[in-house]
Amino acid sequence: MKFTDFNLRQSIQDAIQEAGFTEPSPVQKEAIPLVLEGHDMIAQAQTGTGKTAAFGLPIMSMMNADGSVEGLVIVPTRELAMQVSDELYRFGKLSNLKTATVYGGTAYAKQIERIGQASIVVATPGRLQDLLMSKKIKINPKFVVLDEADEMLDMGFLDEIKNIFTFLSKDRQTLMFSATMPPAIRKLAEEILHEPKTVSITKSESTNTSITQLYYVVEEKERDDALVRLIDFKNPNKCIIFCRMKKEVDRLVAHLTAQGFKVSGLHGDMEQKQREVTIRAFKQGGIDIFVATDVAARGLDVNDVTHVFNYHIPFDSESYVHRIGRTGRGGKTGEAITLVTPGELRTIKRIEKDVGTTMATQVIPTRQEVQNAKEDELIAKIANTQITDSAINLVKTLQHDLDIVTIAHLLASMIQSENAVTGKDKIGLSLDQIASAIDKMRNERSGGKGKPRARHRSGGGHDRGRRNDHDNRKRNDQDRSKGSHTNQERKGDGRSKRNSGKGSFKS
Ligand code: ADP
Ligand code: MG
């Protein structure tokens, strides 16, 4: 499918070509025709899938460039406002569609003037509400877009958004875009959308609900202890441990072998023959644990991998999805376990958002807890063991010198010492410590001004410190001269980070 297959106006088609886009992304394929038909829409797709063009191209194609504000795009942050308007500028310039960017922290007068000249306003909720309530602007857009709706709700903008909609004409086409679809988003959609069409583009593997996703927060130096403790506790049938570097693979293989595990490394520069032998051993149970790099494990298809461990969290969400997809295969359930330091919590949040999933956090069991868990196993195992003739003879021999209770104690001690859980008692952060590490992260995000939340959500979620226009004001002071602007003026100011790679599209 090509962009020319859509019923887009010629000047927009020309702009697409100039942008270097050749093939529409999945969300664009589905969304563009629906928007052109005039439907309201709710669309879910991950970050970087081209959502801006998915709404921008069709609405701009339907605009008249008559000097009034025809389109309103509401986005959560100033940074996004600039990114989105950069992108829209590229699409609209050949159609004479100007864009005004509106956010808190800058003087009103200029913004109001620019809104007066623009066909599209890209705005953050706080400042937009201010302008509407103080009657400084009056707009009547035919197209209203809520971009990154989940993020806006996470940031606490629900009231502002509802209020903004009281100022907008009912006779409008409303589009909502979101990376995730929590219930609060669906509820908002019911209120502001009219008979919406739904578009949902999710990666098939990432929506594999048979994989339980957990993360544990540890200090950097605790990774090895945490890993061993968790393997002891989870008692995986087969597991894969992912590392970032080959060097780490080798070190972990040595470490785990010394702990008595049946383990082998798998990395990229293994000979094909060697690789096949190792994989066969893993499949047949001669090896229980694979330690692998991302590259080495690509496409690895072993059916009964019960656990995937991320010794280090991967850099990008794609790798995360690939890694955890090694478990929960063939209709089985699996667990994906990620170790992070407090400083890596933000990566967890980003991946959750990109992948549209939540990971629950847990505390690493103490030595005693694992010991207790193992005791139950041991008791069951003892009760189920077949008594052999040679065992009977052995006990008879022991009875020459020892009474039967002492013999039992000795045998039990022997078994226990063979199954002993090693390492320090407590590893990693407690739930309270994790909660405050998450609060700290949110505060850092909002420039140190965010209020810690009263309510902790340990099961993941995408909370972030509310970064409102007030906070932006503080950060934007040095930026004031740039202020708000039409994109016509900013042409070629090189601000756009993401758009520089001409037509480079990650699908
Ligand atoms: P999202 O809003 O889904 O996170 P964006 O709309 O910001 O994604 O798009 C991400 C990047 O992909 C942008 O740099 C954009 O220019 C580029 N892009 C979007 N659609 C296409 C396409 N069809 N072909 C090539 N690049 C594209
Ligand atoms: Mg976007």
Keyphrases for this structure?
507 residues; seven-stranded parallel beta sheet; disordered C terminus; Rossmann fold; binds adenosine-5'-diphosphate; 13% strand; elongated; 3 domains; binds magnesium ion; 14 strands; alpha/beta; 21 helices
Question: Can you put this structure into words, describing what you see?
Answer:
- With 507 residues, the protein is α/β, with parallel strands linked by helices.
- The chain has 3 domains: 3-205, Rossmann fold, CATH 3.40.50.300; 209-364 and 428-507, 3-Layer(aba) Sandwich (Rossmann fold), CATH 3.40.50; 368-418, no CATH class.
- Helix content is 44%, strand content 13%.
- It is built from 21 helices and 14 strands.
- The strands form 2 sheets. It has a 7-stranded parallel beta sheet with strand order 3-4-2-5-6-1-7, with helices on both faces. Strands 10-11-9-12-13-8-14 form a 7-stranded parallel beta sheet, sandwiched between helices.
- Helix 2 (26-36) packs parallel to helix 3, helix 6 (125-133) runs parallel beside helix 8 and helix 14 (317-324) crosses helix 15.
- The model is unreliable at 448-507 (pLDDT under 50).
- Adenosine-5'-diphosphate (ADP) binds next to helix 3.
Count structural domains.
Answer: 3
Bound molecules: adenosine-5'-diphosphate, magnesium ion
CATH architecture of the largest domain: 3-Layer(aba) Sandwich
CATH top level label of the largest domain: Alpha Beta
Report on the biggest sheet. 7 strands, parallel
Shape: elongated
Oligomer: single chain
